[in-house]
Amino acid sequence: MNALHPPDPRDRPARLTIGVVGAGRVGPALAASLQLAGHRPVAVSGVSESSVRRAAHMLPDVPLVTPEEVLARAELVLLTVPDDALPGLVEGLADTGAVRPGQLIAHTSGRYGVRVLDPALRAGALPLALHPAMTFTGTPVDVQRLAGCSFGVTAPEELRLAAEALVIEMGGEPEWIAEESRPLYHAALALGANHLVTLVAQAMDLLRTAGVAAPDRMLGPLLGAALDNALRSGDAALTGPVARGDAGTVAAHVAQLRAHAPGTVAGYLAMARATADRALAHGLLKPELAEDLLDVLAGEPGPTEGTAP
């Protein structure tokens, strides 16, 4: 093989035509990634103006057609619609006869496994659940982020190799999730990623209120280190006033939040209680300090509650 002229990926065997139903943030990125591996996007469907723009930007020259036409043109169909819309979409496509025997139908929902594709399976399709554990922006940067991204994969035994190959071609790492474990798997990701965005946004708002001009610059190194420590050490990485049992400090926090950002109090108390429970279980929070702390978290006035901000 001439190292200066590697083979064109389009010359590889078993290249597939790709269709996308639902041009949200995920579908065009996955199709663009598969295109880099030599597969060929041939059709995409989208309804909103933003979906149409996104499809045109991420998959230029790929025609925008109806979902039924996507299935008519593609050998591998990516169903990338919101979770609640997926069952009805699958049933509708199967009922209209759009599903072809031998066609690969893959959805990207974290919540569902392959049972949600049973109507397509009965029509002869080959079902796959390929959920990228990644947050998407709807821009080309998403394709780069797929490198090393874990995918929650559920597939019939006879399709495991095909599912694994598709994930690897997108630069991802397949992680096999049992059908019955999909909702728990998805809840874990939502807890970690979606709630993280809310927590960070609230922290930035509070810093602005406190007079910090660049809260993102202040939080970046701190949160990066906290995340790295948590991934490496789990509960042993806990630090701060809750883990130390500083009831007075926590009470001061609660008082200030009630005065300046009352909408954040419930979340702060809930996360502080969860942190206290984990710190106690891990031996970081001393039991003799926990009582006053838990009183504060239960809403009892602490040492600094009621004082002027």
Concise description?
The protein is α/β, with parallel strands linked by helices.
Please estimate the helix content.
40-55%
Mean pLDDT: 92
What fraction strand? 5-15%
Strand order of the largest sheet: 2-1-3-4-5-6-7
By DSSP, the count of extended strands is 7
Biggest pleated-sheet summary: 7 strands, mixed
Low-confidence stretches: 1-13, 301-309
Q: How many alpha or pi helices?
A: 13
What gross morphology would you assign? elongated
Structural class: alpha/beta
Helix-strand topology string: EHEHHEHEHEHEHEHHHHHH
Q: Report how far apart the termini are.
A: 73 Å
Spatial extent as radius of gyration = 24 Å
Q: What would you note in describing this structure?
A:
This protein has 13 helices and seven strands. It is an alpha/beta fold. Strands 2-1-3-4-5-6-7 form a seven-stranded mixed β-sheet. Helix 1 links the parallel strand 1 and strand 2. Helix 11 (247-260) runs parallel beside helix 13. Mean pLDDT is 92; it is low at 1-13 and 301-309.
Output the keywords.
single chain, 309 residues, alpha/beta, seven-stranded mixed β-sheet, 49% helix, elongated, disordered N terminus, disordered C terminus
Topology (elements, then pairings):
Layout (H helix, E strand, L loop, with lengths): L16 E5 L5 H10 L3 E6 L3 H10 L8 H7 L2 E4 L6 H10 L8 E4 L10 H5 L3 E7 L8 H5 L4 E5 L5 H10 L3 E4 L5 H28 L5 H19 L7 H4 L2 H14 L4 H17 L5 H11 L12
Parallel strand pairs: 1-2, 1-3, 3-4, 4-5, 6-7
Antiparallel strand pairs: 5-6
Helix pairs in contact: 11-13, 12-13
